[in-house]
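Can you give me the bound-state structure? Components:
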Amino acid sequence: MRTVKEKIRALLSGREHRMVLALFAVVLMTVPLVAGPYGVIVMVDVGLYSIVTMGLILLMGFAGQISLGQGVFFGLGAYMSGIITTRCGLSPWLVLLVAAVAAGAVAIVVGRALVRLRGLIVAGVTLALNLVFCSLVVSLRDLTGGATGLPLIPRLPLGGFAPSNTLFSYYVVWIVAILLLVFSLNLVNSRTGRALKSVNLLAGGSEDTAQVLGVDIIRYKVQVFAVGAIYASIAGSLYAHYTGCIEPGAFGVHFSVLVAIMAIIGGMTSPWGAFLGAGLIVSVNEALREVMPAVVGGSTGAYELIAYGSILVATLLFLPQGLMSIWRRLQPQERFR
Amino acid sequence: MLDLSAILQFFISGVNLGCIYAAIGLGLFVVYGVTGVLNLAQGEFVMLGGMLTVAFYTAGTALVPSLLMAVIIAALVGAMLYRLIIYPARNSSGSTLVFLTLGFAFATEGIALSVWGWEFKSLPSFWGSPNIQLWGATIFGQTPWVVGTTLLLVIGLFFFFGHTIHGKALRACADEPLGARTVGISTDQMALFSFVLAASLGAVVGAVITPLTMTGYGVGMPLTIKGLLAALVGGINRAEGVILGGMALGMAEAISAGLMPSGYHGVIALGILIVVFLSRPRGLLVAPGKV
Amino acid sequence: MSEKGKQRDTEEQAILEIRDVSVAYDGLVAVNGVSFCVRRGDIIAIIGPNGAGKTTLLKLITGLLRPSGGEIWLKQQRVDRVAPHRIASLGVTQVFQDIQLFSNMSVVENVMAGCHVWTGASFLSTGLRLPHSRAEERNISDTALRKLSLVGLGQKAFYSPSSLSWGEQKRVGLARALAAGADLLLLDEPYGGLIAEEIGKLSQLLLELQHRGITILMVEQLTDVVLDIANQVVVLRYGEKIADGTAAEIQGNEQVIATYLGNGPLEGDER
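Here's the bound-state model for the whole set.
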């Protein structure tokens, strides 16, 4: 009995994750010392994608709500940061927070309408919302710069400086990613996490049971939709300040599907899956860019699409629980998947 | 100001666009109705139909054989999608199947891009149909072909579902899969057939609209989304609903293109439809309150 | 005692009152004008053949279905238009016939999920692990473990629900409902699929819960077991109440005898 009790305590206090988390953080903080500038650039991408994917994992993997529209909130964050900082000269850090709150508010409104629909239909509607968002950005030329993009977005400042190097972005992105990972891990091993899992119709939840146990299913679904949007918005703001120039193509339907692919490949039963998924897809992407021009020449866009599509299909057919399930299978004493 | 010719012009382009979305929506409807799969690769068949027809036609084949070959190839691709990707995962959840069709859509887009490049491609109007002037409105030469094809497809589908043994079997699978199996209908074959049917439908539409809208490797996904929205607004469970939804989207686009500052019409039409759908999620054709 | 005082007394005793409740779906009347009262601290059994509307009745009480007519009063509050999660917060919970354990959680997490209703840490406070949330989580895990050992499954806390036997799953379901701290427990066929030895244990457990002040309303087909422990029995047939009383009274009721001994059950099965 005592051992069981201790184990639960360990799980609740996050002690189980603490060592792994510390190791993860240390490794990430030392990466720039070992990897060259190219490696750092790639890792910034991985970090940004991981943040958006983590939000989607909470939404899709835990609460069972499909979204193919995370690009909307990534774009909202990026454009709000870009527009407000270039026009009003407010502190980018402040704007990042304001944008995140605003994205969350938009998500609450949209989420309220979406939660009543069947899962498949939600997938279609979010995809349509993403299409509308991109056309809207193109249309609002005066505000967003239209299809050509919004340039000259300032860098994130540090004290009085505005460090312009990739290294600074690397640390900012990864510190945010780790903080959000801690938040997510806390969340999923708590009252909230259990409530989310109880409404997950994709993986073993039951809405009737959740309700008779007192879970306000609509409220939880809307809230987790907002949390996913906030993660995406934060990543979007960071992205805008990192690249300095944003254009609507970066927030399209393909972005949203790609994030979903990362979530599925990484494995949606744990926030950790986000890093596996984002890491794998970004690596594949980089490998294709290195190899394909040498082999066949020309643009690699086509091969990226083929690779993403095939990886998604292969994962769903042969490893439906994603890469995290391999890790789980390696732990023999664990009775619970 | 609005005069009769302007109204007529909106109406004509609305019907034209509406036919396109309705036809794509019908492709989604056939597969969804029979198998329960939301096939987000439907637009890719439209793309394939257009691109293949262009490829054969520019290689010197006559129009009709080009179109036929394009449809046959697309039908085979549809069969492959079912056999190799959907069938092995047929017992998975609906969301898994959606993602499988998305993966297929990505790969198809990639293959099209690598084979044909990123340039948009077009065809001349079928048999050089000239533009028609009617009370001050212009009807593009290809428009009658688009509308006519859609009409034929709709009539064909209704006849097929209502009067042929195959069509009735398909409907049985949609209504009562278990019952269908017990009376000896192979649900697997019917599912395969629905994918082939949807793929050929899409390919025909893709070929017919190419002279009007042009085609390119990336046109599939936006078309899927618009067709899906049209189907959802009208009610994806009924063919009449899908057609109504398609027409609604087409009209909304045509009217907003005429009345709104340029650049906004896509946003407004889709936006209106999303709002309409969210307020009537069961579809326009189903009385509110009825499940 | 005055007449008025007596009436208030019964009102206070009644934890749940069903007044002339009806519901129909797809044109089929599932429950038709049923009324009865549940006294605090009783074990009450609703019995009847298949299709009698027993399960529907439970869903009406927990708010998963809305009645088309009639009223449901719970602890002096009218609840027939109240959302299910709000009804749960009034101290009612239900164990379904098929248990519906959450297969995406371990056994102990399932029971911890049962504590949702009496805890209140918000999204933000659980994500940030604020002291309030941490204290609450400790409280939740202690409660969950206590309930699990009450049903004798303390050692299987980290098992996956799918690895348990049917009887064990039923016990987890019960522990989860108990963790909710409800004083009115609705059980849908709690004896269904249990082996003889488990049946005795369950009866013992239910009596112990009654002793602790929990009111139990159960729906059952295994009538003899139920008649042993129930203080009150309501018999339904085709959505209508045909008898209501103590076990002894029910056993003497002619209509009930006809339902169970005559061709009643067969008719019921057809339905």
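A couple of observations. Chain B has a mean pLDDT of 86. The longest strand of chain B covers residues 132-134.
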